[in-house]
Amino acid sequence: MAEYEHCKAEREGNLLIVTMNRPDRMNSLHPPANFELEKIFNEFNDDPDLWVAIITGAGEKAFCAGNDLKYQAEGNKVDVPQTGFAGLTSRFNLTKPVIAAVNGVAMGGGFEIALACDLIIASDKATFALPEPKVGLAALAGGLHRLPRQIGLKQAMGMILTARPVPAAEGQQLGFVNEVVPADKLMEAAKRWAGMILECSPMSIRASKESVYKGLDEANLEKAMGGKYAEVAALFKSEDLIEGPRAFAEKRKPQWKNK
User: What are phi and psi of 29, to 5 degrees?
Assistant: First the structure.
């Protein structure tokens, strides 16, 4: 993939690994980094050979410390792409799964990036918080809305109103972290989860993700189940719909066509 100044994007077969690469600023993001990430995830969305993405941070200290307040304090213009912080927090039409491999501090916008992902795999050194109220701000890149939807109102308000940091183990207890692993095993674990997803039909995965998220927009269960979902329609017209049962009957691994 293309070379970037503030991030890295590496392909491993059908997997894309994205690294926020500003360790000197704890991988906090400024507009140039945000727009690079938007471009990376646009390409991920459009590339039929990329099925799953992992996003992580460079170095050992931080996944992402949020918005680069030093950049802002230096008088620079602050701008965010239409797809949101890191090109992810307002990207509501992405049906491919994204895994956050949280290697350290995930504060403010960094936590909001992780919440915008489908899975969070955390280092045992990771911490999460929405500390914006302590500096007169609010977590408006989705944190105030995603966190209550993912862990329930009272637990979310306990984090939001206190702005307290939550260690990875507590994050797993609260329900927003899928797995906690030793720091040196983080990418191995994230790739293991990605590998399990990659064993499945990519069209089935996209249909499933779309159905879950769009279904959650509908309060009525019957209406959610009866909704019209583009990825589901595509799945039922696909070669994968035939290949899956055929491979099962022939007792072999399926060869997904992704079409």
Answer: -110, 135
Structure tokens of 93? 């039409």
**51 & 82 share domain:** yes
Alpha carbon 209 to chain centroid, angstroms: 12
pLDDT tens sequence across 195-239: 999 999 999 999 999 999 999 999 999 999 999 999 999 999 999
Catalytic residue among 36, 38, 112, 210: 112
In a shared domain, residues 125 and 43: yes
- Two structure tokens written together for 1: 């993939």
Let me know if 199 is a catalytic residue: no
Report yes or no on whether pTM surpasses 0.90: yes
The residues near 18 (Cβ < 8 Å, ≥ 6 apart) are 7, 8, 9, 37, 40, 41, 44, 53, 54, 55, 56
Q: Are 105 and 65 in contact (CB under 8 A)?
A: yes
Q: Please, are residues 10 and 16 in contact by the beta-carbon 8 Å criterion? A: yes
Residue position matching structure tokens 């890191």: 86
Which of 36, 132, 210, 231 is labelled catalytic? 132
112 catalytic residue (yes or no): yes
User: Is position 1 within any domain?
Assistant: no
Number of domains in the chain: 2
